[in-house]
Write a structure and sequence with these properties.
Blueprint: H1 3-17, H2 22-26, H3 42-58, H4 66-73, H5 77-91, H6 93-97, H7 101-113, H8 124-132, H9 135-138, H10 142-153, H11 165-171, H12 173-195
Length: 196
C-alpha cells in the first residue's frame, strides 16, 4: 500500500489506542535496519513496526490485487498495486469513510510536518513533493497517477513497464477497483488485529 492507505490505517489505530504510529508508518520506507537501532524516539518506532507489518501482509500469496497484476508487471506488481489502491481509496473516499479527503489530507500532512526536524534526508524531497502536489487527494485522478508511474519508471531498474500501468488499470477498472478496496480493508483488519 502507498502513503494514503498507510496513513488511514494509522489514523484509525492512533484514534482508538492513543498511539503515534502515523509518522513512522508514513515514512517507514525511509527507515532501514533493526527497529531497536533506529534513530527514532521509542513512541515513534511503533509506526515503523506497523509499516513493516502492513508491507508483510500485502506481500502474502493470496493478495487480492497482486495476482491480477502479476502477468503484466512481474516483479513490479507490488508497486502498481500499492499506487492503485491509493487511487481507488481517493476516488471513493467520501463513500468509504464518510469524510472529506482534503480535510484528512491536511490533517495527515500537519501531523507529519510536526516531525520535520527528524526527517531522514532522503525523505525530505519525497514529502515536499507529496505535500506540494496534494498527492493523497490527487491520486484520485488517473492523469496524476500516470505522471506518478512515468516518474517512477525512470527511477527503478527496467521500470519502463510501469508506463503501462494506467492503461492496464483502465482496461480492467471494475475488477481492479473491487480487488483494491477489498485488499485495503483486509490488510487494515489484519494489521489492526496483529498490532493489538
Amino acid at each position: 500500500m502507498n502513503f494514503l492507505a498507510h496513513s488511514l490505517i494509522s489514523l484509525e489505530i492512533d484514534t482508538k489506542t492513543n498511539q503515534q504510529t502515523l509518522y513512522g508508518n508514513f515514512a517507514g520506507d525511509f527507515y532501514k535496519g533493526l527497529i531497536q537501532n533506529l534513530d527514532l524516539a521509542d513512541d515513534l518506532k511503533g509506526g515503523v513496526i506497523l509499516h513493516r507489518l502492513i508491507d508483510k501482509i500485502c506481500d502474502r500469496q493470496d493478495s487480492f490485487t497482486t495476482e491480477l497484476l502479476r502477468n503484466n508487471f512481474g516483479r513490479y506488481k507490488g508497486i502498481v498495486s500499492d499506487i492503485m489502491i491509493d487511487h481507488f481509496l481517493a476516488k471513493h473516499f467520501q463513500a468509504l469513510f464518510g469524510k472529506d479527503l482534503n480535510a484528512v489530507q491536511r490533517r495527515i500532512f500537519q501531523q507529519i510536518n510536526q516531525h520535520r526536524a527528524i526527517f531522514p534526508e532522503n525523505f525530505i524531497p519525497m514529502f515536499n513533493w507529496l505535500e506540494s502536489r496534494n498527492a493523497l487527494s490527487s491520486y484520485a485522478d488517473l492523469e496524476f497517477l500516470e505522471r506518478v508511474f512515468i516518474g517512477m519508471s525512470s527511477r527503478v531498474k527496467k521500470g519502463e513497464i510501469l508506463r503501462n500501468a494506467v492503461t492496464e488499470i483502465w482496461q480492467n477498472y471494475t475488477l481492479l477497483e473491487e480487488a483494491a478496496i477489498q485488499e485495503f480493508f483486509t490488510v487494515k483488519d489484519r494489521a489492526t488485529r496483529e498490532l493489538s
